[in-house]
Design brief:
The protein is α/β, with parallel strands linked by helices. It has eleven helices and twelve strands. The strands form two sheets. It has an eight-stranded mixed beta sheet with strand order 6-7-8-3-9-10-12-11, with helices on both faces. It has a four-stranded antiparallel beta sheet with strand order 2-1-4-5.
């Protein structure tokens, strides 16, 4: 099992999320296997980075873990409790403990509500405290994310992208969660603002003891913030390691190729570095290749790679990979 010694806050056990695809007559014909049997543990207090090409299933994995999407199979454990099949009021306390920060702060904020209403809404849903007690907490949360009390009665369109994302983070924090799914929270922001938001998330994690699942396709930023990183390909985790270990010693050919695609600022190093281009497009998650699902694009593929799916095994301490060759 791909884990790290410690106490797991959130755990996936052979988790699956398949989306049915229906024909013209509404009959189920195929399924998009967005998450296809994933086992991992996210430890209390860590930031688990999740990377992979667009369409690999990383956001779906995050959203299934927090029970925003119904799992198709497998099990989800939160703080030692099986939450896989909870519904309605039984699930509500766990939704309070697991919140999400969305990629696009503008579409995630209700344009008809001002900041005060946006932050109050989840608090009113989950808290039994009187309105007067909530008032003070709203101002406190807003200050925590670097906004001013004067911003309370403004609307989302009056703010920059970075400020909107701060409001989104304030809304997520309003119900005092323990776990935050950060679903590409910086990819819609200017590069100059990205580091500010990441630094703020790190400070909040320290102050509030939060645990993060940080979904990203920017591999340089994910290294900075993550304790460990999982690499996803076509619905499966193909490698997990501590952040520096993964960047310095990638084992899976797919990870190697992703890392070699990171732009290098130094022109001499860039000229001397050998980029490993991944051939072809990501296969359809409705028609997953047999055997190793990366074999149709892998430069090291051997005939046996197309026969059997490699399991995720520990190759060095805390470093797991799913490859027959490495
Ligand atoms: Fe490549 Fe084979 Fe390893 Fe898959 S199992 S990543 S095809 S070498």
């Amino acid at each position: 099992m791909a884990d790290k010694k410690g106490q797991a806050l959130l755990e996936a056990r052979e988790l699956e999320k398949h989306f049915p695809v229906k024909d013209f007559f509404g009959r189920k014909r195929q399924a998009v296997k967005a998450v296809d049997g994933i086992t991992l543990q996210i430890q209390k207090g860590e930031t688990f980075g999740l990377v992979g090409e667009s369409g690999c299933g990383k956001s779906t994995l995050g959203r299934t873990l927090i029970r925003m999407y119904e799992p198709t199979g497998g099990q989800i454990m939160f703080d030692g409790q099986d939450i896989t099949n909870l519904q309605g009021t039984d699930l509500l306390p766990y939704h309070k403990r697991m919140q999400i920060i969305f990629q696009d702060p503008y579409s995630a904020l209700d344009p008809h509500h001002n900041v005060e209403e946006i932050i109050r809404e989840p608090m009113a849903l989950y808290s039994k405290e009187p309105r007067s007690a909530i008032d003070g907490q709203i101002v406190e949360i807003l200050k925590k994310v670097g906004m001013k009390e004067d911003d309370l009665y403004k609307y989302a369109y009056e703010f920059s992208g970075g400020q909107r994302q701060r409001i989104g983070i304030a809304r997520a924090l309003a119900v005092k969660p323990e776990f935050l799914l950060c679903d590409e929270p910086i990819s819609a922001l200017d590069v100059s603002i990205q580091a500010q938001v990441v630094n703020m998330l790190e400070d909040l994690q320290q102050e509030l003891g939060l645990t993060y699942l940080f979904v990203a396709h920017d591999l340089s930023m994910v290294r900075h913030i993550s304790t460990r990183i999982g690499v996803m390909y076509l619905g499966k985790i193909v490698e997990i390691a501590e952040s520096d270990e993964l960047y310095e010693n990638p084992l899976h050919p797919y990870t190697e190729a992703l890392l070699s695609a990171i732009p290098v600022a130094d022109p001499i190093r860039a000229r001397n570095s050998k980029r490993k281009i991944i051939k072809g497009d990501l296969p359809s998650p409705m028609d997953v290749p047999k055997g190793c699902r990366f074999h149709t694009r892998c430069p090291y593929a051997k005939p046996e790679c197309g026969m059997e799916e490699p399991p995720l095994l520990e190759r060095a301490s805390g470093h797991y990979t799913a490859c027959h060759v490495r």
